[in-house]
Amino acid sequence: MIELLRANALTRLADRDPNATPGFDGDKAAGQEALAAGVSHLGNLQERLFAASTAGERRRVLLVLQGMDSAGKGGIVRHVVGSVDPQGVHLATFKKPTEKELSHHFLWRIERELPPVGRIGVFDRSHYEDVLIGRVRELAPAAEIEQRYDDIVEFERRLVRTGISVVKVMLHISPDEQKARLTERLERPDKHWKYTTNDIAERMLWDDYERAYELAIQRTSTDEAPWHVVPGNRKWYARLAVQALLTDALERIDPQWPSATYDVDEQKERLAAT
Amino acid sequence: MIELLRANALTRLADRDPNATPGFDGDKAAGQEALAAGVSHLGNLQERLFAASTAGERRRVLLVLQGMDSAGKGGIVRHVVGSVDPQGVHLATFKKPTEKELSHHFLWRIERELPPVGRIGVFDRSHYEDVLIGRVRELAPAAEIEQRYDDIVEFERRLVRTGISVVKVMLHISPDEQKARLTERLERPDKHWKYTTNDIAERMLWDDYERAYELAIQRTSTDEAPWHVVPGNRKWYARLAVQALLTDALERIDPQWPSATYDVDEQKERLAAT
Fold first, then answer.
1. Which of A21, B36, B73, B152 could form a disulfide with A237, with the two C-beta atoms 3.0–4.6 Å apart?
2. What is the rounded CA–CA span in Å between residue A97 and residue A107?
């Protein structure tokens, strides 16, 4: 499945069908079953990672989630990340930068939210906003936006070199699907708070965002930290795919339970005597 | 159930049975069923809290978890807190203070980890360490330890006044139960990493810790922020009790879905036209 989602410098979003379920033949029910079946394996890998970090393991995983409004980032956090022990997760949500953040390089606030050892880091939006909305809304001079792609590549190369597996996911939905999801938010009073009038303004810029995503994916998909374009129209598939990506990243680390740094039998005796 | 767990200035730990299941008549299976049955209500309350915070609701909840080694704090985080959307939780684990933290007042690092609006804050250990291990290990002059109780009462009073419901939980296990749990850690290679030789040294000070807990509970159980002594020998009961405490705190806030700040019909029309 994973290989089918990977992107590179030649990836075109028009070639990726948001309705597809690459590498998975089953239907929704089968997909949900597969997701549930993967929960304990992922949880076990995470606990082993945490345990190993107490014995010096410094490798870890960072999941970067991007996508248009309503693409399903929140659902991934709730249903995939949420299945893991909260103590093993470092979640950061990046909103519109504050004045203080803007007074620094755009990677400053990102650096501060990198996961500590033993944790799965999750970015709900990320440094990519600075080449997405940054580009579309012209929030910085064109030359600076250009520079940012290189800055990102260098930054992520360092992360990977120091043991952070960077798993980049674009949740790819179609304009029609977004329309349906925004419509649902307007139809359900318990979803009204998720809708803002700005959503339509952003939606009108769909093509510009699509182009900005494509450019970002092309320019920052490296061998060390490739993008994955995850079809997002079927929420169940996107969740299954991201679970597979996280599981794969942790399996590559293959963290081990650390051996005791003390004499187990001696401690048993001492404990028994208390 | 909740009232039976509450503590006050006269509470004595010797009167609280760590094996008891106050307010719950069922067995383990019934307890686990009740826990599972409460998940969606708690999750719904949390989502409503988050939604309401986008419309100005500033009230929130802070769960303070304390207990001896192996009392089950981690299990509460995993099984009770872990059932809630991670985006709605702010979890902070307080370990041995760093040099930098020690250069500040003991509440400095606590203040920095208070939950933002819309979130359930969870403290795995807390400012109480400064009157527990602080007292037992004499990490500060006696007069300063005395001052800290007052500091804590004032601090929590401010939290409550500014809308943070402080839910304080001591997970209360017996020395025998701790022995069994530590023994299990020594018997299972996948648990060896959870054990340190310091655990026995701390265990030898059980009576001192018990006294320090009792004092802390007596001196900082206020009407605004009472302690709850949750019997911890049966993990399933402790989890059910903490779920009940969190649910109760959120029900008292009774957060509401905010009404739309825009004209819903107008937005529907505009969206349909895109």
1. A21
2. 11
| Architecture, CATH, for domain A2-272 | 3-Layer(aba) Sandwich (3.40)
Contact: B82, A85; criterion CB under 8 Å: yes
The label of the residue with tokens 């810029």 reads A205
ipTM for the predicted complex = 0.93
**B193 with A54: Cβ contact below 8 A:** yes
Domain ranges of chain A: 2-272
| A&B contacts, CB < 8 Å | 116
The two three-digit tokens of residue B34, written as one number = 């009740």
- Between chains, do A192 and B260 touch, taking CB under 8 Å as contact? yes
**Residue from A49, A68, A87 to probe the interface with B (highest B Cβ count within 10 Å):** A87
The rounded distance, in Å, linking the Cα atoms of A3 and A80 is 20
Whether residue B122 contacts residue B77, with contact meaning beta carbons closer than 8 Å, is answered with yes
What does residue A66 show for φ and ψ, rounded to 5 degrees?
Answer: -130, 160
**Which stretches in chain A have pLDDT values below 50?**
none
Read off φ and ψ for residue B71, nearest 5 degrees. -70, -20
Q: Does A82 sit within 8 Å of B82, measured CB to CB?
A: yes
Half-sphere exposure of B152 (CA within 13 A, CB side): 27
Minimal-distance CA residue of chain B relative to A194:
B51
Do A87 and B74 contact (CB within 8 A), yes or no? Answer: yes
Whole-angstrom Cα distance, residue B93 to residue B76? 13
**Distance from C-alpha of B238 to C-alpha of B147, rounded to nearest angstrom:** 31
Nearest chain B Cα distance for residue A9, angstroms: 31
Question: Tens digit of pLDDT for each residue in B8-55?
Answer: 999 999 999 999 999 999 999 999 999 999 999 999 999 999 999 999
Residue A42: φ, ψ to 5°: -65, -45
Q: Note whether A194 and B52 are within 8 A (CB).
A: no
pLDDT confidence of residue B258:
96
Inter-CA distances, A103 with A98, A127, A156, Å:
9, 15, 22
Exposed / middle / buried, residue A186 (Cβ in 10 Å: 0-12, 13-18, 19+)? buried
Taking CA–CA distances from A86, the nearest residue in chain B reads: B82
| Whether the Cβ atoms of residue A271 and residue B200 lie closer than 8 Å to each other | yes
List the one residue out of B193, B76, B198, B177 whose CA is nearest residue B133.
B198
